[in-house]
Amino acid sequence: MSDDVAGQAQAWVSLLLSGQATQADGRALSAWRGADERHEAAFRDAARLHGLARQAAGELRARETTALARPEPVAQSRRRFLVGGALAASVAGGAVLLGRAAMAPAGRAADFETAKGETRMVQLAPGVSAELNTLTRIARREDVGPRAFELLAGEALVSIDHDAAVSIFAGDGETTTSRARLSMRCLDGEVRVSCLEGAARVRSAGRIVDLPGRYSVTYDQASLAAPAPIDPIAEGAWRRGILVFRDERLGDVIEEINRYREGRIVIASASLRERRVNGTFQTNRIDQVVDQLRLAYGVSATALPGGVVLVA
Fold this sequence. Notes:
This protein has helices at 3-18, 23-35, 37-69, 250-258, 270-273, 289-297, and strands spanning 81-84, 87-90, 96-97, 112-113, 120-125, 128-132, 137-140, 148-160, 166-170, 173-177, 180-187, 190-197, 200-204, 207-211, 215-219, 228-229, 242-249, 264-267, 276-282, 301-304, 308-311. The protein is of the alpha+beta class and 312 residues long. Helix 1 crosses helix 3 and helix 2 crosses helix 3.
């Protein structure tokens, strides 16, 4: 299908959705669709893509509503959100230090939080620091002890520089360690703990695993996997400003990219989501990901308002 036919189909769909189409436009559209089977196929594809775009835009609006409903933090924020059009954009600055009482009632309140695309070093306790990746939330667990914390969501590199034990909760498990460096990730109910230096003990799903250095373990509500060697290049690559993917589903790659990029990339077909891909992307040039995918894998991309990009 030529770009010209696809462009005409997009124009027809846009006209219909504008509410400005006349009966004459309707007759002209019917004639155009019937003139060539490629026109009909292009029109159906364009209509489907617009449906996906509306869905993605709806998801963005829902996230904006949730963000706007959140009360202002009691502590002075170094960062505020500017909301405009179909997406929220953040200004440069540090992580948000949030007062517990100011958080939304649903779920545990965060003491430290980063916005999309933001990284930040924080001091959790004397001798315990953490580098937070994009969209990460950490809470103190004073109900457990002064050296207990919880990774509520996101990803962080935690460094413990003394012998006193530290407990880090995430998902349905707990990791205990001292004098160690851990990379921890908690997303969608799955937790991965990677021990970069030292050693750690991970408890989850009724089991305990001792984690040596340069090994990682993954758990969820129902299971705790056996430790596996870490990929020293991919592990913590975000701290160097890059994302490394090796033989991963394109759907999973795009979901990870969406954690860094304002707006949303939507894959139009189930088969394309399952495609295995490799790639290395720079987080400070995350908008170039779509161009890289287009060149490397021959996918097409349609940019829509609100930062939505449809990939097909």
